[in-house]
Here is the input.
Amino acid sequence: MTGPEMHDLVRRLYPLCRSITGDGVRRTLEILAESVPLDVHEVPTGTEVLDWTVPKEWNIRDAYVKDAAGRRVIDFAESNLHVVGYSTPVSAVMSLAELRPHLHTLPDQPALTPYRTAYYAETWGFCLAADTLAALPEGDYEVRIDSTLAEGHLTYAEHVVPGRVADEVLISCHVCHPSLANDNLAGVAVAVALARRLARAEPWHTYRFLFAPGTIGAITWLARNRERVDRIRHGLVLACAGDAGPLTYKRSRRGDAAVDRAAAHVLRASGRPHTVNDFSPYGYDERQFCSPGFDLPVGSLTRTPYAGYPEYHTSADDPGLVRPEALADTLEACWEIVQVLEGDRRYLNLSPYGEPQLGRRGLYGSLGGRSDTEQAQMAMLWVLNLSDGEHGLLDVAERAGLPFPVVAEAARALQGAGLLKERAR
Amino acid sequence: MTGPEMHDLVRRLYPLCRSITGDGVRRTLEILAESVPLDVHEVPTGTEVLDWTVPKEWNIRDAYVKDAAGRRVIDFAESNLHVVGYSTPVSAVMSLAELRPHLHTLPDQPALTPYRTAYYAETWGFCLAADTLAALPEGDYEVRIDSTLAEGHLTYAEHVVPGRVADEVLISCHVCHPSLANDNLAGVAVAVALARRLARAEPWHTYRFLFAPGTIGAITWLARNRERVDRIRHGLVLACAGDAGPLTYKRSRRGDAAVDRAAAHVLRASGRPHTVNDFSPYGYDERQFCSPGFDLPVGSLTRTPYAGYPEYHTSADDPGLVRPEALADTLEACWEIVQVLEGDRRYLNLSPYGEPQLGRRGLYGSLGGRSDTEQAQMAMLWVLNLSDGEHGLLDVAERAGLPFPVVAEAARALQGAGLLKERAR
Amino acid sequence: MTGPEMHDLVRRLYPLCRSITGDGVRRTLEILAESVPLDVHEVPTGTEVLDWTVPKEWNIRDAYVKDAAGRRVIDFAESNLHVVGYSTPVSAVMSLAELRPHLHTLPDQPALTPYRTAYYAETWGFCLAADTLAALPEGDYEVRIDSTLAEGHLTYAEHVVPGRVADEVLISCHVCHPSLANDNLAGVAVAVALARRLARAEPWHTYRFLFAPGTIGAITWLARNRERVDRIRHGLVLACAGDAGPLTYKRSRRGDAAVDRAAAHVLRASGRPHTVNDFSPYGYDERQFCSPGFDLPVGSLTRTPYAGYPEYHTSADDPGLVRPEALADTLEACWEIVQVLEGDRRYLNLSPYGEPQLGRRGLYGSLGGRSDTEQAQMAMLWVLNLSDGEHGLLDVAERAGLPFPVVAEAARALQGAGLLKERAR
Here is the structure.
């Protein structure tokens, strides 16, 4: 999938009213299933999941506030952000003074509608621009929220790209935000594109993609897969993947997991402007994967990080904030990280005493016509020098300051010449 | 004790002629005993202490140099700095030329009188301003030092604030300097104030305060407590605690002792301008406590460090150099460091799989109205995330970049909610 | 040997046509043997050495290209750089067009002749200035290379300065370059001077100097000494030792070998501008000594490093590029590094409880009249503090930030006073 194709997917998913449960998530997963086959899981309300309980399912059909003239001054049909997520049903006439405690605005960004939810408190509310609120006259308003909060299910989906081994790479993204584009339809679109690209690559690892609501979805998945999480060798939480900012990698709790090193190497070696941050127990679902009982090697890749841009959790996080070229760049970075995880192996130099004579084996000659000869030759010397059984190719790439693919290609050439033997993984 | 109260104590102690032995130290300890009960120890001359021997006791009543007109041109009664410490008695008339080898000045600070001692060489001398010396006419002078250097005792004192455990925190300060205010009456005053504050706090550790002459006093104490020093878990040498400069912490020889980490954290987290220096075997009595045979976890807290200010060891180190607000700030830093030492414990997250649902337990709600909600919430998430049995609260504070008290309060809240269990210390 | 004496040696060796085999190397070693006794080794063509085979021996008597008028337009007699090393014999008349593929120039440095070799490809060629080539008219040329490439020997030499122990320090330099002065006659001259200075010093370690052709020479030596290399405790490859640039130390593959720490300390403590680089598997014969099978603690000392100056491998690398004072400075740095390797021992403080009373032992007094008293006193305190059996004198020098000789002298003084005991090495 190209950047524009990912952007098309973001735009198509944007109008749906997603939440942590309900038909918006189901419809979202149906659309994703057109691109990648999905295993959809439905977990009943009341199911105990780790320290939590699956909540009631929430669905909404319509909602509005009408003025005395019968005009919808706040209208769910115009943007699903206008209703506080998980609002209970309401149908009443009330004065603006009575209504006001249920209205949420952003005084510092008066033209924007905020995104608000109330998952675990049974209440209701509307969100609107502070400018709109300021223009509302006193008087009575008709207030209606046509929603249901009832026994039902929490819905999430998995997509698996099988590998040669059962060891897994987990790619996770949250699918619970309504009309917010960068957070997180962009992450969803990149995940789908990465899954499609991996499916053609016959990877070594098995790749498990998780599309689940934030927090409670990850917790539900962890609760139901507790016996299997030790298969996860590496993982990435994808979020805010499409804004114009530079890439940001947030390390796993371990801090030195292979995915941490791979991501840092890829971002540095590529010359992209980027940031690498230490883990903190705040942000997206890495909070759950990196809780101390699991402590999985899962980092997080975003562009501008969590809550770091002014449009965050407002109506301005719309498809216009998401750039096709940024989606493509995030996908490419994911791909490069995956390539490191796939290719990072240990080799044993079979001729470790002195340098082997590369010229005699055509390993200089075979490279003579290429413009990157010098880099390729340095990569061979580094691979030979460090392939003592203690260092893998990522170690080589880091120490040599060479891009991982150049190092991996050097290892292939040396292995082809009988100078290297792969260590059992 | 407030800053002004500590400053009053400095001013009261300032005129006494202290040395490494003698009545000046005894009188100093009597005054301190008005504020905190003291155990005063008298160790006889000739006692072998580690590699050293307790020297003769020195006392002085009067000393002067009179000119031909009988005027005291150098006068001990005006400032005890005018006599070299441990000067032997002298009573003679001599020419300025004969006298000159016994006169000490500071050519680069001609208006100031230096501080000089000759503890282990039986000699005598006077100190005076270079300007004063330059104005002395040639001719005969009457020279008199009415001192005694004789068998006696070395005097030091201890004050103990008992704790819940026998593990000790050692707070040490030297009491051997005559009329020098910052070095070290300021340190003495802060130690007294800290002892009084601790006495009201029912601390966990036992706090041992040592008021002893520099070098030989610490060595004497170490010699007499050799079998007990393994009780010392943490320690601080207090010196130069009242000048206007920023705080300076000097690490223990170990470099990563808990007190080293606690002091660095407190200084950094407080936003104070400050310096943290590595250990060196020079300075105050940390030299003795950190000698390789003992290697105690004892750092040193000063404002401007040892020999680092122009007034150091001159008549300009007078009570005017010591600021009440600086004394109060040093005391506060000590207190904050002590709070870390007291409160640094390891907890076990009892709900380590995923995040526990804090909202259900009122741990978000209980914080809702507070202006520091975000910091308190982050502290709870960090404590939960790192309470895996490997990390203590200071580890959490360091990694989270949060002030220790905020972290400690989060731990208390989580423990109250049954989410944390304290590990045995 | 002084800088000018080393420079004389460079100038004397400069005209000889060295290669990886042949009489040029033999004649070079004969000249070196006038200064230091040498063990010369002759290894027959065809001998298998590690992954390599000793090649045929190459010798050359004359070579030229004559124009139609019989003038030598390219002349080996003028500079041996004009012939590609290991050129096979040729005697022919050919057009400039036919000749051109055998001519090598430096288009970016048109006035300079490049240095080229073809050790393992049987071919021939000439090197010349691009300006000279541009001025050659079309037409026929007489081309002659009077060389032999035949069964023979590879020649290298060793010089050993015996020490008190069999543990060895290896000093290696390549002797295969023809008329190139900095690379590496400068290194050869410094090695000879260092050997002569060491011979007078009765060193602790045994010093083995290796004068061998690059790559194949080091490989041959390693192959023939495989059972003995574990005697090598430290080593230095000397190259490019005489240009005007600052000193550059390149760490061994281990990165923290004693020689790595010694060299870094010497360069830093001396205040010289300098660079310390991490190991890379490219450069001089450290590539072989640091191959993973051997992994010897051998670093490399140069001034401007490998390939780092514009005259590198051109006719401009002539004796004028080499400065007598730079040779002397490199020798001095080597000497200082050697002094650290010789003197880095562990001592045990025999009075580790508190500071021993230095004044009583005359250890302050003995230093009183010296201008470096403070440094000497600090060095004694540091040596006492760190001599706990875990730290050697280089550790002390590094941590104290004091020059190694000052620390070593302090240790001698303390040992003399009975305060230190040397640990068995």
